[in-house]
Amino acid sequence: MKKILIVEDEKMLAEMYHDRFVQAGFKIVMAYSAEEGIKIALKEKPDLILLDILLPRENGIGFLAKLRQNPKIASTKVVAFSNYDDPTTRKEAMEFGVKEYLIKTNYTPQEIIKKIKTYLK
């Protein structure tokens, strides 16, 4: 069973994605901040991280910088998902090796699950 870490500060949205991914057969671990996400990634070693870019205190770009600096988790696959569609932020995320930068409002949870599955094959 593939493990996904969802880093999302909006708890209701995070729980909705949690439930949908569990129904699709994934093991899910959750983090509600960038700092918590790094700790959980180190402990749980997820197969993929679904990362919100707009997070409290430290944003998703800061998270990606820390993730890529740590040899234990540097190669973890990441899909960014956010409603923040800034070209500079998108470019930075891609430079940190995100597989895709999805705009939340453009995709249903089922479509996001389908995309995630392609990266976990």
Computed Rg: 13 Å
Low-confidence stretches: none
Mean pLDDT: 96
Oligomer: single chain
Based on DSSP secondary structure assignment, what is the total number of beta strands?
A: 5
CATH class: Alpha Beta
Beta-strand percentage range: 15-25%
Cα-to-Cα separation, first versus last residue: 12 Å
> Outline, from the CA principal axes?
globular
Structure report:
The protein has 121 residues and is α/β, with parallel strands linked by helices. The chain has a single domain, classed as Rossmann fold, CATH 3.40.50. The chain has 5 helices and 5 strands; from the N terminus they run βαβαβαβαβα. The chain has helices at residues 11-23, 34-44, 60-69, 87-95, 109-119, and strands at residues 3-7, 27-31, 48-51, 77-82, 100-103. A 5-stranded parallel sheet has the order 2-1-3-4-5, sandwiched between helices. Helix 1 links the parallel strand 1 and strand 2 (27-31). Helix 2 packs parallel to helix 3. It is globular, with a radius of gyration of 13 Å. The chain starts with a strand and ends with a helix. The model has no long low-confidence stretch (mean pLDDT 96).
